[in-house]
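We read letters as residues; the fold follows as C-alpha cells. A sample entry reads:
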Amino acid sequence: MAATDAELAPDQFEDLVDAVTGGPVELDGLVVQYEDDGYVFEVPDLHREHLSVEELERVAAANAEWVSNWHFWNVVVGGEGTARRAFLRWLEATDEHSVRARYDAMRDGGIHHEWGQLHVTVELGEVGYRRYELRHVDDSEADPDELTVHDEPRDLRDLSKYDDRGRYRPLKTAPSLVDGWVLPELTSGELKEALGVVYPATVENWHREHEGNLDVSHWRETAERQTGIYGVVEELPREAVEWVTEAACVDSQCLKRREWEYDEDDDLETPGGDGPFPCREPCSLVVAAARKWTKLEEEEEHTYEFDLTPSEKEQLEAIVDTVSEGRTDEIREADVYEGANRYRARYLRAKRFDEDGNLCGVPTEE
C-alpha cells in the first residue's frame, strides 16, 4: 500500500462514498467504484477490490493525496467545464503532472505562473486544499515583508486604477500595473475574483480560445454596430485602421494578443502581438480614439514650408518618437544631446515658434 504523509478529513471520505453511490469516481489516476462484492479503489501502482466501507476508508486514508485531490476539484471547485475550473487546473498543469508530483511541488515552494503582469503561486494547504498568492511579476522574488499586504481582492480595484505616476489607466491590460503589493492566502474563488478585477474577462476568453470557440468581432463588424457619436468610425479609411492598430494594439501598449482583423477575409499588416490574452474585438479605448482619428482624417492636406536645420528636423522626429514610446521620463535634464530633452525643446521653441505658438511663424490653415 502506497502510504503518504498527507491527511484526509472525515468529510472528504464521506463525500467520496456519497459520490460513488451515483457511479464511478475517476480523476487524475484515482478510480473508486462500488460493485456487488464491495468497493474498488485504484491509484497508480495500487489496485484493491472487494473492500468493505471500513477497508475502503483505511485505503483512502493511506492514499489521501488522490482522495483529497478529487475532493478539492469536484467538491470545493466543482464547475465541470467552466472557465474557472479549467484555469485553476491549468495553473497546476494537471494534464502534465501526476497528483504526487503536483503535491510535492506545492509543498516545496509552490507552483508558479505568470498572468500578464501578475505572478500567481499555488501552495498546498491543509487536507489537500489550495492556497493562492498573487503579486506583481516584478516582485516575484521579493520578501513578503517588503510588500504591502492586502487581504481582499477588491483592494486591487484602486491598485490597478492608476500607474506608478498616479495617472489613470484607461486600458486595464496596459503593461503599467503598479508593483509593491501582495495578496496571500487566497481561496480559489478569491483568486478568480482578483484576476477579474485586474484583467476583466481574460480567464473567460482564454478558456473560449482553448475550447476553440473564441468569438471574434472584426473591425468592420464592430464599426458598423456603433451608434450615436461613435457611428462615424465606420467612415475611417482602411489604411487608417492599420495606423490605429500600430498605435494602440501592439505589445508595448497592451498585453492582449489581437485576434481581430479588418474583416474576416481581410487581414491587417500590423502583427497581432504575443500577449497572453486573446483580444476578441476592438476595445472601447480603440473605438473612442478612432472617433477622433476619423474626424482628423476628414481634414484636407495642406502644404507648409518651414526653414529648419537638419538637426532641428531630426529633433522634431525624436520628440514624436520619444512621446509615442512613452520614454519622456528617461530623458534627463542634463541630456542636452537628446532631441526630446526639455531644455533643448524649449530652445527650439524659443528659436522657431512665434508668440502665437506657430512653427516658424507659419499659421495653421483651417
